[in-house]
Amino acid sequence: MAAEQPTTERLALALAPPGARPAAPSAVEGAAGRFLARERGKAPRNKGKSPEMGSSSAAEAVGDQPNPRDDDDDLDWTAAPVADVAMPPPTPAYPVDERERDVLLIKLLRSTVDAVAIGKLDLASDGMRWVADLASPDGRSLQRLASAFAEALALYVIVPFHGLCRLLQLPQAAPPGEVAAARHRFRGICPFVRIAGASANLSILEAMDNEEGVVHVVDLGGSDINQWVELVRLFAARPRGPPGLLRVTVVNEADDVLSAAEGYLTAEAQRLDINFTFRRVQSSIDALTGVGGALGIVAGQSLAVIANLQMHRLLAYRKEARNGKGPAGEQSAQHTMTTKADALLRAIRGLSPKLMVLTEQEADHNVDELQPRVWNAMNYYAALFDAVEESAPLVSPGDRASVERWLLGEEIRDIVVCVGSARRERHEKLERWGARMVAAGFSPATMAKALGMTEALARQVAAGGGAGAAVGVLRAVQAGGCFPMICWSNKPVFSVSTWTVRRSVVRPPEAAADAGASGSHHGGGPASSSAAMVFDV
Question: What is the pTM of this model?
Fold first, then answer.
């Protein structure tokens, strides 16, 4: 039996220019064919744009999805689909060939998103009916991905009807225990977060190479206990020996996580004969106040701060609303540098850390408009679903389903369904984070030794096969620094950037906001995509 075509490649085929993909199968020409009619004959939606980071056809076709900020006439998201769509036959005859079914599935899902966005809920209902026939939470990786997005889209439609949601008990909050377990399984199944954690540790070790006094490492939440155990071991193995005192402060909402971290780290430090103290801060990053006092910062001690997949959660909250209108939440050019995340970055800069490590998803989901938000997310999560799929021989179906439902699925729901301050998964690409870091008073710090070791680690993981077979590291050049970009089949999925305090800080709020806005183009073209900043290794 031939190997299954990766989800990202099937997405590329489905979203390729009309002349490069098979026509919609005649078996569904009646209802579904008319539903898809407006998709035919259009120019490719990423016309004239370069593929992202020298990537595969997946990123070429999906990574440059329609951008409402472009001026192209064929990207008019307000254009209505066909006025009338016939109901499907009771038993539609879908194509037998998997490739053709996948093409049809993605085209139907795309048109359904369009219909929802312009309020054509009758068309959206028809589209969801057919998508439900072709997608499956228990099928192949593309079917599972489409099922997750279709479910999120259905929730997006029904959530404004509060009475219906109350009667149906929707949406239901994810059980915290399931989410935590799924996150732990994902770290075990896919190597992305582990490589990012190792890169952060190596960067801290390199920055603190000459420090023999007190080294204070602050985790703003999101890091794994194993990452800090490994950091303790790295300091113990230094040729010059460990620092005089290693302090670790961890921010986390869960008391059991903090207790476990304290126990493991203290035991390991004792075993390695390292002078060590642990400080717990039971809080979420959202509620963190009085940063210096809460984190136990002591002047004169060498400080490293790491924010691991957390900072984007603060982008929904504006520190101030310059126009005084509307609820805090959606990003705009006027508010790009006035979020709670930017305020926290400035507060951290005020602590004068020797190094700050920022790990974030390399994605563009902090967008107001529904269509680009959904398709940017589809592009991103296709790579993660493919990576999970590759682990199938070594991972139980139950563990895989747990990761896709309670971790990736919950993130997809948040991105698609939630609006305003309710949406927390507001991922931004390294280019945007670079602008925020510079505006907050940081300068890029290239950790050359750590970068080389991260690349070597990725090659070692790839040689092991399984979910790590397609893992790699590209070098991203941003704001004058060079950082590791962790990839799956050349599709960037996580970035790890390292920063130090800039000596002189210039913070004109108006200029910072305007400069940040002018350099940001959601959806990515050659001027804004990471392609212009990355070279292959």
Answer: 0.78
Burial of 535 (0-12, 13-18, 19+ CB in 10 A): exposed
**How many angstroms separate the CA atoms of 472 and 239, rounded?**
29
Q: 308 and 234, same structural domain? A: yes
**Mean pLDDT along residues 430-441:** 95
Where does residue 138 rank: exposed (0-12), middle (13-18), buried (19+ CB within 10 A)? Answer: exposed
Place of tokens 């990786």: 141
Cβ contact 43:93 at 8 Å: no
- Residue 387 and residue 493: Cα distance in Å, rounded? 11
- pLDDT given for residue 390 in this prediction: 87
The DSSP bridge pattern shows strands 481-488 and 491-501 to be: antiparallel
- Domain membership of residue 402 (yes or no) is no
For 444-465, the pLDDT digits (tens) are: 999 999 999 999 999 999 988 7
Please enumerate in sequence order all residues whose Cβ is within 8 A of that of 250, keeping only pairs 6 or more positions apart, or say none. 219, 221, 223, 228, 258, 261, 278, 279, 280, 281
Task: Provide the token pair at 34.
Answer: 């008319």
92-101, 148-157, 263-272: the lowest-pLDDT one? 92-101
> What is the number of domains present in the chain?
2
E-strand ranges in 160-207 read none
CATH code of the domain covering residue 224: 3.40.50.150
CA distance 150 to 112: 9
Task: Flag whether 311 is in a domain.
Answer: yes
133/248 same-domain check:
no
Residue labelled with tokens 């190792």: 198
- What DSSP string describes 483-522? EEEEEETTEEEEEEEEEEE-SS----HHHHHHHHHHT--T
Residues 194, 254: one domain?
A: yes
Is the pLDDT score of 16 beyond 80? Answer: no
Domain span at residue 353 reads: 189-364+424-535
For residue range 372-394, list pLDDT tens digits in order: 999 999 999 999 999 998 887 77
**DSSP-derived pairing of the beta strands 214-219 and 245-252:** parallel
Letter string b/e over residues 12-51, b meaning 16 or more CB atoms within 10 A of that residue's CB: bbbbbeeeebeebbebbeebbbbbbeebeeeebbbeebeb
- Tell me the Cα Rg of the chain: 24
pLDDT digit string, tens, across residues 96-106: 888 888 888 99
pLDDT at 310 over 90: yes
Is the same domain home to 108 and 212?
Answer: no
Q: Phi, psi at residue 184, to the nearest 5°?
A: -65, -40
Phi-psi region of 447 (alpha: psi -120 to 50; beta: other; left: phi over 0): beta
- Report if residue 482 sits inside a domain: yes
Is residue 279 situated within a structural domain?
yes
Same domain, 256 and 168: no
